[in-house]
Amino acid sequence: MIRKDQTLSLLEDLTREELQNKRVLVRVDFNVPLSEDLQVKDDTRIRAAVPTIEYLLKYNCIVILMSHLGRPKGNIVEKMRMNPVATSLEKILHRKVIKLNDCIGKQVQNDIATLKSGSIVLLENIRFYKEEENNDPLFAKQLASLADIFINDAFGTAHRAHASTVGVASYLPSYAGYLMTKEIKALDKLLLHPDRPFISIIGGAKVSDKIEVLDRLTELSDAILIGGGMAYAFIAAEGHEVGKSILEDNQIDYVKKLMLKAQEKGKDLVIPEDVHVADNFSADSESYNVSADKISPNMFGMDIGVNTINSFKKIINKAKTIFWNGPLGVFEIDKFASGTNEIAKQIASLYGNVFSVVGGGDSIAAIKKLGLEDKFSHISTGGGASLEYVAGRKLLGIEVLRK
Q1: Residues known to be catalytic
Q2: Domain containing 104: what range?
């Protein structure tokens, strides 16, 4: 359940009378990858918004969707227009989606004024205006003028104080959509009421990207398993050579303190005992398994090793709650994907017996490649927002939805 001190106004709190035939402005996260010919390559984020859209359509609302796409930095960038997203959404919903060529202004207001109840509108990329990221009050007021109610269903942008996430809430009755609510409930279950043992698995390239998360998880988890590029800072902190592996020298002191903190709190912080190394960073490299204290100066660490995979599996098997963020090796290259893939399969094998949450684009991509999406309790669409929430930060896009 959502924590008591953060009670939100939810979409379901609205009565039939409050919703029926209303114009509803919905902030969604349709920042999806596009192919070179401008087709949506992965529609996961679009599909995630469907429950909220369909709920509003039940009440004959005019659904006005707004999102960013890419980083146009306040400029009109033709290849970042929302047209491919509208086409993809139409296919998913099997109904017409009206794509407008702007997100504010007289023409947009006129177009929306002529719509019938039950229509779906997608505004143009809101980041074509620099005022969006600046949370400009006038821009937020112009967006809000299009509707009677605001629904935020974009958890992935909840950590951004932008006009479309925070500003519009000053001008309209504001509520959390189904996806936003689902994300918060899943992460709160991790943070507030985890069944134990609670195991965190943290990978990815850099320690510096996850300092606050590592600090918090050292307090909340029973064990933290470390992999990916960040693991070499931990190996170096123990005084070992890491060769040409990714290494943030400026994080070694922090890592030493974190390891000491875990020890003092009686938490298991587990780093690789062996690694898969290669003579160059490529698929055709010569590679082999070595002990973590035997990495030669000319080698690249590319993945956790066989013994580490087995050790991690044994720990995971005892878990009741699992949080995973970040790949455990260079999973984009098949020969260095074993760590990531094997751990994904191990967590998936426990489905139904553990509460498992995975976040981070690379981890999710690996799970999808294996076809295991349905074997995790919750796959977070949040990215950076998920990490900030787990780290204990207040997300302004959520704060404005308080009752």
Answers
A1: 45, 206, 361, 384
A2: 4-181
